[in-house]
Amino acid sequence: MFPDDEACLRYVEELRWPDGFSCPACGTKGEPWRATRGRLVCQACRSQTRVSAGTIFDRTRTPLTTWFEAAWHLTTAKNGMSAQTLSGTLGTSYRVAWAMLHRYRVAMVRAEREPLQGDVEVDETLVGGVDHGGKRGRGAKKCVVVIAVEIKQHKGFGRVRMRYVPDASNTSLLPFVREVVEPGSTVLTDGWGGYNRLPEQGYLHRATVVSTSWDPADPSMPGVHRIASLLKRWILGTHQGSVDPVHLQSYLEEFTFRFNRRSSGSRGLVFRRLLEQAVVTVPVTDADMTHGYEW
Ligand SMILES: [Zn+2]
Asked: How far, in Å, CA of 272 to CA of 232, rounded?
């Protein structure tokens, strides 16, 4: 479908203006003139709009065909791809592949906006730490990740959301629940004190056991436990266990995006969904890439 950058730009244009181009400068709707390098010219006021302005593709030096191919691999490979594997597959440098992956992960978070509902298990797990080679140092810090997953009566799990938090205190846990779980839902926890104030926030709270100490190594929540082990296997398998805590949240977003679409019959639709978010995502700066995206 996408033999050249021209075709990719047409697709981006269609995603940005599904009802036809309207000029951001004067608001006039109508077919624009097409100039070189993906610029559209308003027939009314003659101002120019770059098709990629305000998207994650803004001012990229990488061909859009490469970006699109990366999105295809990211959405069709069962476990996604590491930057290493992607650079080999696309024939780009590691740095270019890494940058594309990170920008797509920013788009993925945008795709997860509908709050979780019904019965939702919430618990924490630890990610990272000593790797299997016994190496310590960079990335050796254990990170607390809080996971929420919808529990379905007969169909197993629904959707998940996850966040890397500084600790397991209620000031870390409650804002996460408020953001990702619909008020009125039933939140299932292990009774850890960090969740005590859920009823004040409009949730039904069901604690299975009452833990008096915080022990993430022994999660009593079977749903979260299962998701956590899939997450850890993915980090170990696809990413060789090497996830920098600075970028951990973006890896969590990628895992979430893929997990929540695991039963989608059409990879093409998942690809389209990713691209739809890619064209409305505010541009990611180099500082975001170096120091971690501000989620
Ligand atoms: Zn105009």
From this structure: 27
Q: If you measure from the C-alpha of residue 35 to the centroid of ligand 1, how many angstroms do you get, rounded to a whole number? A: 15
Q: Say if residue 20 is exposed, middle or buried (CB neighbours under 10 Å; 0-12, 13-18, 19+).
A: exposed
Burial class (CB in 10 A: 0-12, 13-18, 19+), 184: exposed
Question: pLDDT per residue over 128-171, tens digit each?
Answer: 865 444 444 444 578 999 999 999 987 689 999 999 999 989 89
The end-to-end CA distance of the chain, in Å, is 33
One DSSP character per residue, 22-74 reads: B-TTT--BSPPEEETTTEEE-TTT--EEETTTTSTTTT-SS-HHHHHHHHHHH
Q: What does the alpha-carbon distance between residue 250 and residue 253 come to, in Å, rounded to a whole number? A: 5
Cα(29) to centroid(ligand 1), Å: 8
